[in-house]
Amino acid sequence: MDLVSPGRGDLPHRLGEAVVTMRDPSGRPIPDAAVLVQQTAHAFSFGNIGFDFIDHANGSGSPGDAELAELWLDLFNTATLPFYWGGFEPDPGRPDTRRLATTAHWFADRGVALKGHPLVWHTVQPPWLLNHDTDAIERLQRERIRREVGDFAGLIDTWDAINEVVIMPVFDKEDNGITRLARERGRIAMVRLAFEEALATNPTATLLINDFDLSSAYECLLEGLLEAGIPLSAIGLQTHMHQGYWGEDAMLAMVDRFARYGLPLHLTETSLVSGELMPSHIVDLNDYQVTSWPSTPEGEARQADELVRHYGSLVAHPSVEAITYWGITDRGAWLGAPIGLVRADGSRKPAYDALHSLVKGDWWVAPTSVRTDAAGRFRLRGFAGDYSVSVPGEADRSSALRLAVGASTADLML
To answer: Are 401 and 297 contained in the same domain?
Structure first.
């Protein structure tokens, strides 16, 4: 029985193996037939932010956006879209729903899954929220969650429900309504608020808690939330490494600490620098302000090596189900850092090609021609995800297959 297999098969917890029987329209097996098998999507979430394509999706983009979009779509399958309250609703009652919905549809039409970020956060808050007392702030925050989750249900069903709760009640960089509310109500009440309203509006939503503080304080918060019965769908872990790659050992030790809660882990915000590293004495990454932060050949080689090591170690960990890289391009990148996989001029960095070689190479089943055996069967071994089986040269004769982890059988009709 012919076997279709990926470039590398050393990640058994990511692989499925199916005995596939091809049948004709009457249900009879098709023996000794040539078929073309090709993977079309990963089950694992390889994500990136979709911020760069909002204008493009709405017909007002910049030169080079189409080419950049092609690079994005050839590598990633999940887009995070920005719902920062201050930017989404700078004037009360005038949310940016239409533009974000158009952008979400643009991605969805191209087979991309979507996540909204975030529903509750103390940063990038609308100044008008400070005109209200804490009871009114809570009411407005609840209404905001119901509105966004309801307006986008069926299009965006995964949300960072609440962001950076550990620091939320003690945040002192600027006054904002959400920190006032968190200081009065407490962290657990803030998380409960976010989850209550989101689930009341969309009971099947996937809801994350997300944080950059990966210390024991986050662990204590998670333990309190689980004891309180708050239904976390997954734990979000931010890993912005502007001061240098942490290394596989440190990264996996951190992942193991959070894996013990038995929930899926999402590496929600990952970045690696392809230029000079941020000085190690900087505590808040936002405090590092420089006029120019260029990408360098040496930095790009380092970034590519570290990206392969980072993704390789995390995909090998059974608790990790999603990794979101925080930007495709250096153009307009967060903090002006050279963290993109594509230079500001649109050319690919080595990191892009290195990651592509994993996601669409080592971890991908390339188009393969096989023959069915006398019983109309062939065997498919590959990374969990979507596959197409077709008759070579006859695009109208094809069938789709969803390959799950583990062993299975499937009957397909051609």
So the answer is: no
**Residue 195, domain extent:** 44-362
Looking up residue 137, the CATH number of its domain turns out to be 3.20.20.80
User: pLDDT value at position 292?
Assistant: 94
Does the pLDDT value for residue 395 go beyond 70? no
Residues 295 and 310 in one domain: yes
Q: Domain count for the chain, please give it.
A: 2
Average pLDDT over residues 128-134: 97
What is this structure's pTM?
0.95
Identify whether residues 149 and 241 lie together within a single domain: yes
User: What residues contact residue 65 under an 8 Å CB cut-off, 6+ apart?
Assistant: 52, 53, 55, 56
Does 278 lie in the same domain as 374? no
CATH number at residue 16: 2.60.40.10
Are residues 101 and 33 part of one domain?
no
